[in-house]
Amino acid sequence: MEHGLRRYGMPLLDKLLPDAITVDLGFVDGDALRRTHRTVSDGGPIQTMLFAVISLELALRALAVNDNAGREDVTCS
Fold it and tell me: Which of the two ends of the chain, N or C, has the fewest CB atoms closer than 10 A to its terminal CB?
């Protein structure tokens, strides 16, 4: 898991961090997440809790996309 998080999770988290829904909703402390990301990116130890954070972020984004897609289909006359 650590290898996968370091190789794939950290680049993904780098893209997700600027507009993280988990941070906006208060599920995750944005400053702490950025510090952890920086530490891992600098070669520090990986925290497997990042898997849960990335998974939650992706799930919330998927729900937001599905929610917005459903609303766009509704037309008002």
Answer: C
